[in-house]
């Protein structure tokens, strides 16, 4: 009887651990859309926040801090490891801002450079540690570094995004 109870307890424990591990895994990003008009949606559905020209937001980001807004742009750079950030610019080759995803809750395809994006979220200002700045620079992010190796950045924390070719 003890052996059967022990076996059952071991089975239940293994089952519970595998369910917990599976539920906490982040699904890999899907490939970028291949057809025209195809849309990839990530995060929350886009709402009704006011659409702000990305160029205007970049000129005066402090006036948009803490207010939900919608922006449109082009992905100039993307995290090549997981798709956990992207650099959004008004036009390819122009200065832009790094976009992260609320609560690290979703990612974009790692091959989405050049795609058009509509994103909803809020502007935030961050001081990145030297380690974080080194990590992001290693992934291709453009940062304005401080003499001590840290970096100040304008960051857009998206709650939802739509990507299309």
In a few lines, what is going on in this structure?
The chain has 3 helices and 7 strands; from the N terminus they run αβαββββαββ. The protein is an alpha+beta fold and 165 residues long.
Features:
alpha+beta, OB fold (Dihydrolipoamide Acetyltransferase, E2P), 5-stranded mixed barrel, globular
Description of the structure:
This protein has 165 residues and is α+β, with helices and mostly antiparallel strands. The protein has a single domain, classed as Beta Barrel (OB fold (Dihydrolipoamide Acetyltransferase, E2P)). Helices cover 23% and strands 33% of the residues. The radius of gyration is 20 Å and the shape is globular. The relative contact order is 0.21.
Please identify the structural class as seen in this structure: alpha+beta
How many structural domains can be distinguished in the coordinates?
Answer: 1
CATH class: Mainly Beta
CA-based gyration radius: 20 Å
What's the CATH topology name? OB fold (Dihydrolipoamide Acetyltransferase, E2P)
- Unreliable spans: 5-29
- What is the total tally of β strands? 7
End-to-end separation in angstroms reads: 63 Å
Strand portion: 25-35%
């Amino acid at each position: 009887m003890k052996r059967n109870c022990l076996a059952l307890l071991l089975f239940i424990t293994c089952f519970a651990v595998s369910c917990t591990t599976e539920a906490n895994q982040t699904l890999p990003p899907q490939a970028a859309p291949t057809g025209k008009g195809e849309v990839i949606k990530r995060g929350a559905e886009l709402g009704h926040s006011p659409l702000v020209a990305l160029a205007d937001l970049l000129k005066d980001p402090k006036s948009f801090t803490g207010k939900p807004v919608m922006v449109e742009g082009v992905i100039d750079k993307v995290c090549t490891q997981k798709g956990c950030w992207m650099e959004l610019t008004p036009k390819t080759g122009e200065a832009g801002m790094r976009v992260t995803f609320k609560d690290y809750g979703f990612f974009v395809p790692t091959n989405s450079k050049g795609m058009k994006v509509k994103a909803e979220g809020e502007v935030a200002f961050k001081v990145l540690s030297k380690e974080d700045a080194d990590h992001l620079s290693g992934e291709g992010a453009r940062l304005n570094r401080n003499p001590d190796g840290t970096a100040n950045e304008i960051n857009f924390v998206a709650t939802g995004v739509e990507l299309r070719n």
